Amino acid sequence: MKWMGIQAILTVLSHFIFIGLAFSALQSLRLDRYIVPERQGKFKLVLVLFSVALGFLCSEFFLSFVDNIRNFSYLFSK
């Protein structure tokens, strides 16, 4: 049971880290220059939502990749 708690903490941390990286990467594109000032609020909301979606997908890929690498040991064990 302790292992499940540790895995849950690592999963949540991974999601937050990748969401932060995605948000930072999307902000560096400076797409707000192309949005009219009246729609800046909606654009920021879309940017946050897109960052969450992209960060979650990247995090799930990373966690799945690590899990599959860990399971390779079962392939070669007797």
From TrEMBL:
The chain crosses the membrane at residues 6-26, 46-66. Keywords: Membrane, Transmembrane, Transmembrane helix. InterPro entries: DUF1146 (IPR009526). Pfam families: DUF1146 (PF06612). NCBIfam families: int_mem_ywzB (TIGR02327). This is DUF1146 domain-containing protein.
